[in-house]
Task: structure prediction
Amino acid sequence: MTPLAPMPFPESSFALTLGLLMLAPLAIAGIALVNTGLGRSRSAMQSLLGSLVVISTAVIAFAIVGSAIASGTGGDHVFHLAGKMWNWAGAGPLFLNGLGAASARMQLAVLFELLSVALVVLIPWGSGADRVRLPAGAAVAAIMGAVAFPLVAHWTWGGGWLGQLDANFSTGAGFLDGGGAAAIHALGGVSGLAIVWIAGPRKGKFPREGLSTAMPGHNVVYVLLGCLIALVGWLAWNMAGSLLWLNAAPGQLVNTAVNTLLSAAAALVATFAVTRIRFGKPDASLCANGWLSGLVTSSACAGLVTPMDALFTGLVAGAMTPLLVELFELALSIDDPSGAIGVHGAAGLWGLVAAGIFAPRDGQFAAQLMGVSALLGLMLPLMYFAFWIVNHIFPFRVDSDGERLGMDLHELGGNAYPEFVVHRDESYR
Result:
């Protein structure tokens, strides 16, 4: 399957897709607010400024180098193994040369990918909150924008080897990722996991093995508002992705929008119920993460399944969100302030599997499983190795004094809330 193969793309579809992509940045704004609210008050300004920094770095890196790797214009880099052709990277022009002369569909695809790379870099930035330095965040964003995201985008959207699974392995269908569950969310989740492993937990988070200190977000209002803002962007994002990557007709977009909303709503209800049963009262920040996990799941399957299927996939995503938080913290000692590893990584992978289960296409389940295996087996070790090298050039972790003072004062010379007194944590006494 070659998603960008010449197909009818009328002017009305061009205008509709462009309009949807103008709303899609609201998803980026929502995630930035969620990351900030779930962090500490003394790192709020660094978190939001850092969001702009990593976005800017990533989109520039993508425009200069990454767009050439992500392209699917023909003449791609291929190798032959076991009698099969493996298309692993594009060979388009650098610096977005020729964009103005490209087809309308190709121009929209580049815009979609630029927005996608802006979103994907926010995910590991949120995982490393309260301890990862701005220069390190920018270096990570450059790698993701120039190499990591473009590779996965080419494999899935640019006619790469995952999209050609039907030809190479007779699966009956190629890998499908209409809203970026693989290229954005699963990739962002495994990148966040690599960041957390390398940077380590915040001081005082794990006083003893098997114990975890609660470090609640400083502003849950930001978090909940971010969720509402993200919904608008996600609706537009999934519909635009369905038009571009699933070749959906405009008449099918209502179903995509309905599935997106149902998945988020079901996930929220499931998280609300699980946290109420577990803790006696619902947990607001976990419910927000549940809502986002439903949106992430919908990125994989909103354009492929029925409303009842979307409802079920959202319920599963929402139920597993608080359980994964406990697993990561208590069993694996993973300190992820934004919950991005579970929300984006695990929910994205689940959405890809669910798309294979419920999509009405023979062989789709096998194709989706192969895509999930590639993300875990190839991209996770690749990201860890790349970030390990970066950490030796631009150290991720702020020193203990900087963490005690807060990232705002240490890196920016001021506080986001100067009229309030920032108290010391017990762990620093």
Q: What stands out?
A: Confidence is low (pLDDT under 50) at residues 1-6. The longest strand covers residues 84-89. Residues 65 and 194 are 23 Å apart (CA to CA). The domain at 26-413 is CATH 1.10.3430.10 (Ammonium transporter fold).
